[in-house]
Amino acid sequence: MDQTKIDVLRALPVPGFDHLIEGQPVPASDGGRMEIISPIDGRVLTTTAKGTVADMNAAIASARGAFEDGRWSGQPPAARKKVLLKWADLIESHALELAVLGVRDNGTEIGMAFKAEPGSAAGTIRYYAEALDKIYGEIAPTPGNILGMIHKEPVGVVGAIIPWNFPLMIGAWKLGPALAMGNSVVLKPSETGSLALMRMAELALEAGLPPGVLNAVTGEGRVVGEAMGLSMDVDVLAFTGSGATGRRLMEYAARSNMKRVYLELGGKSPNIVFADAPDLGEAAKVAASGIFRNAGQVCVAGSRLLVEASIHDDFVAAVAQAAEAMRVGDPLQLETQIGAVNSEAQLNANLGFVETAISEGGGLVTGGGRIFEDTGGYYMEPTIVTGVTRDATLAQKEVFGPVLAVTPFESEEEAISLANATVYGLAGAAWTANLSRAHRMVRAVRTGVMHINTYGGADGTVPLGGVGQSGNGSDKSLHAIDKYVNLKTAWIKL
Ligand code: NAD
Which of 91, 423, 475, 487 could staple 173 via S-S, CB 3.0–4.6 A? Predict the structure, then answer.
């Protein structure tokens, strides 16, 4: 990556986006537009269509029509594979354009965005393209006069609702397996992170995806997202976002056609450091980056640091030092390690959590405030609060910002008990050189992902999904394909 190229791209005006329906840009049925504010400077960057219920229903009808006439679902696997591979190539050849557009919209630091957004999305689309002609049905072990076959059929129309953090990466986690298996998809990007995803959807058409197979509707969650949730014609909802919205989606499904609802929700992930960690210096640095990169707006962020009491003070000092050394600022500068908070509302919510933590007895070690307010952007210092008790707000509620809660523990049993003391179960880590303890921690901590002596970075070969109120069903790996197929039995008397 080259700073000059980034600077050229950031200076370009951003065109407005309409919906993408039946392969065409389509404005909102009532002409409504939504202003997109850049978190870099708080200014209006562009506008998108502000969708209506009618717009969402039109997109779903288009997807249904495309599915039923077989223009994609009926193509041979090799043909679908070719289109998806071309799409992955196009995402890669437009990677910097997509990354810069996304950062101007959502504030993620460019170093991370470049890898985690177009880089990861292209890899994911390619992974499922390559997989799609290697997925077989099954023959059941039946008596000789019977043939029992299990077919994997596409479900039909998939509704994908995407958050503002990592929209390309998370979008591809749904689009890759759903499209690979022959489904049609309607995308609903986030209000505060839609632009790069809309551009990525345009590239799918350029790659040869037939019109109507992938439609995208921008607008407010409570309008177009709700219409998708309540639709009688969406078969599966694949969602990443907050628990509050996830709960609504289950309710919409119950009130409409009982569509399957897959939820990837929030977390309060414990990063557990034992005194026998192989490298406490490394553990401190990774603890800082594990919560502060992308200003803490990472679903699996290690937002609770549980530290063995005997090393607590020194370890917290080392994490604070690492945090203070991280460069916060303009997310389009290559040296920036912590970009902008996504929106003013999110920034204010983060600051409110810090205030509450202190009022509940927490000690502020570093950070706690808004910075660079004169830029108009939404920037916050990496913040560490110690003495956070088991039931404190900061131990229980997801902040989704650069705020680390620290709690000491005396024994392995206490560490496990603290780790499991929230409604969430998304990710976690344990740092220890004791092999038996490492395996005990993997089993004992109730999460979808447990890291040992590292934090984050699990690639597309392994699933990511939560337990408890962190959700159900997994993105990534071949297991994700199950979400987008129906099992159909053929029971044949010979
Ligand atoms: P959000 O729930 O506010 O919004 C997510 C999406 O839902 C947006 O597209 C929004 O428009 C839509 N939406 C909002 N209200 C809706 C409604 N009533 N009906 C239908 N759709 C609606 O979440 P967010 O603030 O964009 O994202 C942050 C959250 O996402 C955090 O909790 C974070 O932990 C979680 N997250 C989870 C993962 C994971 O893999 N588990 C990954 C990234 C983010």
Answer: 475
